[in-house]
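Help wanted!
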Amino acid sequence: MSDFKPLDPLLHSQLRLAIMSLLLSVKSAEFTFIKEKTEATAGNLSVQLDKLSSAGYIEIEKSFRDKKPLTTCKITKKGVSAFEAYVSALKDYLN
Amino acid sequence: MSDFKPLDPLLHSQLRLAIMSLLLSVKSAEFTFIKEKTEATAGNLSVQLDKLSSAGYIEIEKSFRDKKPLTTCKITKKGVSAFEAYVSALKDYLN
DNA sequence: ATAAATAAGTTTATATTATAAACTACATTA
DNA sequence: TAATGTAGTTTATAATATAAACTTATTTAT
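Answered by r_m:
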C-alpha cells in the first residue's frame, strides 16, 4: 500500500498551480494580469487557461474593452475544492 | 515581476518527489522498498532514480544479496538542500 | 491612404518528460 | 530442462509543457 496519494496532474504543473493560486486570492483576474504575475508567455498561458477551464476549475469570460479583447478568469467551486485536495495530498510528500 | 519562484523541475514530479520524501525519512532504502511504497513500476522507478542520482540528489549503491542484485539509495546533502528549497518555493503557490 | 507598430490573444509545432512495455541476467523450482 | 520468479535496465510511446508563428483588430506614423 502506498503512502502517497496521487497528485491531480492538472494542478501539479508550475504554471497552472500559479494561475490557481492567483485566482484564489482575487474575485477575478484578467489575462494580462495573470500573464504579468506568472511571467508566462501568452501562448502558454492561453493553453493552460483552456485546460483549467475544460476541467471546470475556472470560468473564462471573453468580452471587449477599449475595442480590445478582454479575457477574464474566475476560479470555480470545483476549482477551489480541487486545489484544496491537491494541497492536502501534497502534504504527505513534504513531511 | 513574478510572485512565483520557479520550481525545481527535477523535484516537481510526483514520483521523484515521493522518492525524495521517502529517502528523507530513512538512512537508506532499497529499490524494492521504494517500489512498494511509491507503487511505481520498476522501469519508471529505475529511470527516476537515475535522474535523481545524475543530479547528485541521491546516491545509489549496487551490490548483491542472496545472489540477487540489490540497489540501495540514500539522499545526499545536496538533495536535502534542493528538497528544502523546493518546499520553500512551493509555499508561495499554496498561500 | 497605407504601412508599420501595438495589443490581446490563439493555434500549431517542437522539445521535454513521464511512463510502461519489452528485455536482460541470473536463480530457483517443478 | 523448461518454466517461474526476482531485480532490475533499456527503449519505445504517450502525454505535457512551452514557445514560435500566426490571427484579428487598433492605433500611430509617413
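OP: Thanks! One thing I noticed: Strands of chain A lie at 29-30, 58-65, 68-75.
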